[in-house]
């Protein structure tokens, strides 16, 4: 059995467990929310400001 088929089998078995579909959907929503928040921060320049603030001061 190839590696891809093994992962497909493992995923199918895990998704058949009680509550797995709900947990997967909750994780997907959380991921999408995080990605959207990051895009908004990048769009306003807040990411760059945070990176600059985290840098050690130069002499």
Structure characterization notes:
It comes from Micromonospora sicca. This is XRE family transcriptional regulator. The chain has 59 residues and is mainly α. The protein has a domain at 22-59. Helices cover 80% and strands 0% of the residues. It has three helices and no strands. The longest helix has 25 residues, at 20-44. The protein is elongated and about 55 Å long. 0% of the residues are buried. The mean pLDDT is 86.
Question: What overall form do the CA principal axes indicate?
Answer: elongated
Helical residue percent band: over 70%
| Sheet of most strands | none
Count of DSSP H/I helices: 3
- Strand content range: under 5%
Distance between the termini: 59 Å
Q: Please give the number of β-strands.
A: 0
Rg over CA atoms, rounded to whole Å, is 20 Å
Q: Stretches where pLDDT falls below 50 for ≥5 residues?
A: none
Average pLDDT, rounded to a whole number, is: 86
Q: In sequence order, what are the helices and strands, one letter per element?
A: HHH
Task: Decide which structural class fits the backbone.
Answer: mainly alpha
Organism: Micromonospora sicca
Protein name: XRE family transcriptional regulator
